[in-house]
What we know:
Radius of gyration: 22 Å
Structural class: alpha+beta
Low-confidence stretches: none
Number of strands: 23
Shape: globular
Number of helices: 16
Strand order of the largest sheet: 17-18-16-15-21-22-23
Strand content: 15-25%
Largest sheet: 7 strands, mixed
Amino acid sequence: xxxxxxxxxxxxxxxxxxxxxxxxxxxxxxxxxxxxxxxxxxxxxxxxxxxxxxxxxxxxxxxxxxxxxxxxxxxxxxxxxxxxxxxxxxxxxxxxxxxxxxxxxxxxxxxxxxxxxxxxxxxxxxxxxxxxxxxxxxxxxxxxxxxxxxxxxxxxxxxxxxxxxxxxxxxxxxxxxxxxxxxxxxxxxxxxxxxxxxxxxxxxxxxxxxxxxxxxxxxxxxxxxxxxxxxxxxxxxxxxxxxxxxxxxxxxxxxxxxxxxxxxxxxxxxxxxxxxxxxxxxxxxxxxxxxxxxxxxxxxxxxxxxxxxxxxxxxxxxxxxxxxxxxxxxxxxxxxxxxxxxxxxxxxxxxxxxxxxxxxxxxxxxxxxxxxxxxxxxxxxxxxxxxxxxxxxxxxxxxxxxxxxxxxxxxxxxxxxxxxxxxxxxxxxxxxxxxxxxxxxxxxxxxxxxxxxxxxxxxxxxxxxxxxxxxxxxxxxxxxxxxxxxxxxxxxxxxxxx
Length: 498
């Protein structure tokens, strides 16, 4: 068998990437899906559109290089986490659009539960503070607001899944016996799984009024779950499942405690492997599952989640029309020497780690007549690096480990200005690997290990290579001045919504 297929179902698009044994890309199929904004703060996707796109991108990736099913050893899947779908297991149809991880409609429920139980009660069990981010309260919203769903859930006909579960169910038979499963990494993002027992927590489900029978079976991240029945990959073992950020950690080969990676996508997510030890956060981070390979113990991670990174560049392009395509931002930002005193805080749906302020909203601060669009473009890029610095400082405080370098991946790492500024602000080298599609690669690794395509972590470590390394050039005084300005701007964004 020559290849491993990986389905990468992301926030803005779905891709199928086919990899060879050295972890190189052989073929890619990709298609964007619609972003639906019914009200301010609400973000939805059409799950039927995503399912159709998934079939299309698999077919495209195979057709492009004339790849036969018998050439593919296994398939892995990785997905945007927390995005929530409830569908009818008899018809296969979703009751409502997928409620996306960025959506803030459950803010009132967050406030009510904070009053009645306190955020710490949830964090102690799940590693997650009470926030609009996670799946549990999104399920509750669908049950409470979409007619007929609760009744069907009580009867066992309405079932829940994040996008991995929804696609796996369809790929393995759908209404004809499709597998209703998820993996430990995705389950750890629902706020319904107990991190210590790695099982659904009946008390949490009761508090949120969610019937337990709606929830998928929790499986390891790397295991042969069953065979795909859909004709685009018919008969191929489905053998890997990870949430996108954990998949990137696996793809970056961060298998030792203390190793960390940062993914620059729609949002920005830094994960540090803490090994088999569960490290509670005291500095605004999440404790989460890193991965679990079949027959091995669960590995944990600390995570800092930033809601808006690449999405801020898209906002500059689509909402303000300052650039025509996302890659234009680097040239515009390079047209000026610095940010001109301007800061952009992209709290469009509140602030995530380490602040957890759902009442924050976006601000542009420090404006003078001197500031032009070049300065705004630069401030947009810098926002991602400052948010990463916020997270890194919290991570070092929680873990007691000083990070000596940062491995980076995701679409934004092609931006050289951004990567240099990131190294300057963190005062550590920033390393871009040869393969930057580490999310899809991580799911491929999980699937390949499960079927013996790769035999050990050593095989995967040999595939990892450095494309470019950026070293810090900025003086400490300048770094401190810039970061102090960022902290002032962040405070201006707090408590905008009452």
